[in-house]
Amino acid sequence: AKLTAFQQMVIVKSLRENFLTLVSRNLVAAELGPLFIESPPFDLGACYNDSVNITPLIFVLSSGADPTEYLLQLAVERGYGDRLHFISLGQGQGPKAEALVKLGWDTGDWVCLQNCHLAASWMGKLEQIQESQDPKKISEEYRLWLTSMPSPLFPVPVLQNGIKITNEPPKGLRANLGRTFQDI
Question: Which of 58, 45, 150, 65 is nearest to 112 (CA)?
Fold first, then answer.
């Protein structure tokens, strides 16, 4: 007799636990459909549309995924090609980043602070900046984009108030080809 997907998962759990994730995906696909195991297409435009001037957009980075090209493309599409400012955080970049954010508040430019996980000592200041925002005094067009690897030092209030975006590299040949055609 043929085993159901759940029965297969129970057997794999007891014999080869290292394959449990794969079998779990098979169970979800069998019971709910393949739609529930595939990552949704990356739509940065929709994330932007959901944001307002005081809501940071946070890229949670994973190895092999770089959202910079997508952000540059969105900036060009929205007419911000030369109004998008990047700064890579690290040693001594905190004051420059703060000045850039305040400039963005006044001009409506977009600011992208990259590698927030490398500026642990400045994360408290980022939290202060975010909490001190007055929506009436900040340009409606301003957006703050943050990129960071998962880090326990990232300020929780900034995470809670932000729009979290992940862009994981596609898993498998089919998904990889699908992403490539979507990008074209």
Answer: 58
Residue 140 near residue 110 (C-beta atoms within 8 A): no
CA distance 86 to 129: 17
What's the pTM?
0.74
Q: Strands (DSSP E) along the chain, which ranges?
A: 57-60, 84-88, 110-114, 143-148, 163-166
The two structure tokens encoding residue 96: 């420059």
Enumerate the β-bridge partners of residue 61. Answer: none
Over residues 36-92, the pLDDT tens digits come to 887 766 788 889 999 999 999 999 888 767 788 889 999 999 999 899 999 999 888
The strands making up 84-88's β-sheet, listed across from edge to edge, are 84-88, 110-114, 143-148, 57-60, 163-166
Placement of tokens 């954010």 in the chain: 101
Q: Are 167 and 59 in contact (CB under 8 A)?
A: yes
| Helix/strand/coil percentages in the chain, nearest 5 | 50, 15, 35
Angle ∠(86,87,89) on CA atoms, nearest 5: 145
| pLDDT tens digits along 92-118 | 899 999 999 999 999 999 999 999 999
